[in-house]
Specification:
The complex is a heterodimer of chains A (404) and B (148).
Chain A (H helix, E strand, L loop, with lengths): L1 H21 L7 E14 L18 E13 L4 E10 L2 E14 L2 E8 L32 H4 L10 E12 L3 E10 L31 E11 L4 E13 L7 E13 L2 E13 L19 E14 L4 E13 L23 E16 L2 E12 L9 E12 L1
Chain B lengths: L1 H20 L32 H6 L10 H9 L1 H8 L2 H18 L4 H13 L3 H13 L1 H4 L3
Helix pairs in contact in B: 4-7, 5-6
The chains are: A mainly beta (404), B mainly alpha (148).
Chain lengths: 404, 148
């Protein structure tokens, strides 16, 4: 019985190798350059910064810039490479630097630096690929109000990491498409704080690319796309990621997600839900806002969701309506993430349960196909007041984005 | 019937386990003991943000000798750093109040020595600031502060 299994396994591997070697490799390499840039002005009329009382919980008001340049190279019929450099709020960043070795559609090996496959939005994280100026709150990377209070979103996008991924697509006739991905990557970290209580996203940026963590983060995604003709398609997906983030690889985090999208002609509806369960270090109870509970007292849960509908209003004008929010539950550390301090220097305004809710209405006008103007208005609602006593805030984005 | 019961039990167990997995707990607020630590704003305040407190001012993060209590006098003389660190820390300052209340209750008890010992033990095992303060008191002011 065992020898039969081994025989069939060897047979499959030989057949796979034969199929690879029988395909002729291309002699010439093919290059593809692409790039995008977005300049955006964010106005918050009643924000704390406007009242000369900035703090860690305020946001990037004024102009911000996001730009990216990507080179894709088809080296052979099976091998390709992608390199993408981007410029954002924390300077130049290497978003992608990886090789894809595609044996068949169902089996692709990716190695290098890349954002592992999680959720649906990350594929559209480039500002040229989404209609609004900023990302949905679960994927926010620092554009949200009071970002310091929340330490950004549930899974700030993009989230480039070093590692390997197996992914593939299997077509079920013309009706459906099944996608999968499995990966092991560096993952998120906080090796600076003596009592880590959350991710330190700065450690995922330059110059922290060298990772000393011994255990990689692992994850997977499954998605099914059903096509109802040329004008209709729908995708349902689920994602998960598990890892540790402290220097001793003791503190765990688990991120789960579900996504759904529906396109009918040019109208698109998308919804995603993300949840992160994260342990924190309990060795210094003094840093926490609440006393530590004996049971289930070593972690917090951060959830986020968004739903949006994109509706064209003409050949050059598109509209977007989005509702998104986050909800955090659990003990709160008064240590500023990444401060390397063991003594609280602030008091977090978050409570055991805190939420933020945002409603956005945006318009996008195409001056040309590859150059568009963006404008949006946002209503923010928080469960707690800011330093000026406001629980609500208005925000306005005015942006321009180009791509080639 | 057996299989359906098993399935229902498994589903119930999975839901309860799953809910527990994402249901964090926390105790009472560590700043709810009546000491004002500078409000709950989001303003960064530096190391002195918690400031002096109504309770602590008299006994002194400044370590000034403003009391006739022999324990306070001894501690401000020999253990200024650990005393200030405790009163500057909201958790330790609140724990100190709890310790005082615990010691007062112990005085009324028939088993005073044992209960006082428990009070000190509960305080010193609460955190690093508490442990350091008791260690210094025990080293320099054991008789004045009646540290077991």
């Amino acid at each position: 019985m065992w020898s039969t299994r081994v025989f069939f396994l060897v047979l499959i591997l030989v057949a796979l190798l034969a199929s690879i070697t029988s395909r002729s490799a291309r002699a010439a390499e093919e290059y593809n350059f692409a790039g995008s840039a977005q300049a955006d002005y964010f106005l918050v009329p009643n924000g704390p910064r406007a009242e000369q009382t900035p703090g860690p919980g305020t946001t990037f008001q004024g102009f911000t810039m996001e730009a990216g340049l990507k080179v894709a190279v088809d080296i052979s019929e099976h091998l390709s490479a992608n390199v993408k450099a981007c410029y954002g709020c924390h300077g130049l960043e290497l978003d992608m630097a990886y090789f894809d070795y595609r044996v068949v559609d169902e089996f692709n090996l990716r190695a290098g630096r890349f954002s592992p496959t999680f959720g649906a939005f990350n594929l559209r994280h480039d500002p040229a690929n989404h209609m609004l100026s900023d990302k949905p709150l679960p994927y926010d990377m620092g554009r949200m109000l009071r970002k310091g209070d929340w330490n950004n979103g549930v899974l700030p996008s993009p989230f480039p990491s070093n590692g390997v991924e197996l992914d593939g697509t299997h077509w079920l006739g013309n009706l459906a498409q099944f996608d999968y991905a499995l990966y092991a990557v560096t993952g998120f970290r906080n090796t600076i704080d003596p009592n880590p209580a959350d991710f330190n996203f700065q450690e995922s940026h330059l110059p922290y690319f060298v990772d000393t963590a011994t255990r990689p983060a692992t994850g997977a995604r499954l998605a099914l796309t059903v096509r109802g003709g040329a004008a209709v398609d729908s995708t349902l997906g689920a994602s998960a990621m598990l890892g540790t983030y402290d220097a001793k690889s003791n503190l765990t985090y688990a991120i789960g997600g579900a996504d759904f999208s529906l396109r009918v002609k040019r109208t698109a509806f998308r919804a995603e839900y993300l949840i992160r369960r994260q342990q924190f270090d309990r060795n210094n109870p003094d840093i926490f806002k609440y006393s530590l509970a004996a049971d289930n007292g070593d972690f917090f849960v951060k959830q986020g969701a968004f739903a949006e509908i994109e509706q064209p209003l003409g050949s050059s004008l598109d509209s977007t309506l989005r509702v998104d929010g986050m909800w955090r539950r659990g003990n709160v550390s008064d240590i500023v993430v990444g401060s390397a301090s063991s003594v609280p220097t602030t008091v977090s305004p978050l409570t055991y349960q805190s939420y933020v809710l945002r409603e956005t209405l945006g318009l996008e006008f195409a001056l040309e196909r590859n150059f568009r103007l963006k404008g949006s208005a946002e209503l923010w609602q928080f469960s707690y007041a800011d330093s000026l006593g406001n629980k609500e805030a208005l925000g306005f984005h005015f942006g321009a984005v180009g791509s080639f | 019937m057996t299989w359906s019961r098993f399935a229902l039990g498994f589903i119930a167990l999975a839901i309860s386990t799953g809910c527990s997995f994402v249901d964090p707990h926390a105790g009472a607020s560590q700043t709810e003991c009546g000491i004002a630590f500078g409000g709950s704003g989001q303003t960064s305040g530096g190391s002195s943000y918690y400031g002096s407190t109504a309770h602590a001012t008299a006994a002194g993060p400044s370590c000034a000798l403003t009391t006739d209590n022999p324990c306070d006098q001894c501690e401000t003389t020999h253990c200024c750093a650990t005393r200030s660190a405790c009163y500057g820390d909201p958790s330790c300052a609140c724990a100190d109040e709890t310790l005082d209340e615990c010691l007062d209750d112990a005085e009324m008890s028939a088993n005073e020595a044992a209960e006082q010992s428990q009070c000190w033990n509960a305080f010193s095992t609460r955190g690093a600031a508490e442990q350091a303060r008791v260690a210094c008191q025990r080293a320099w002011c054991q008789s004045e502060c009646e540290v077991p």
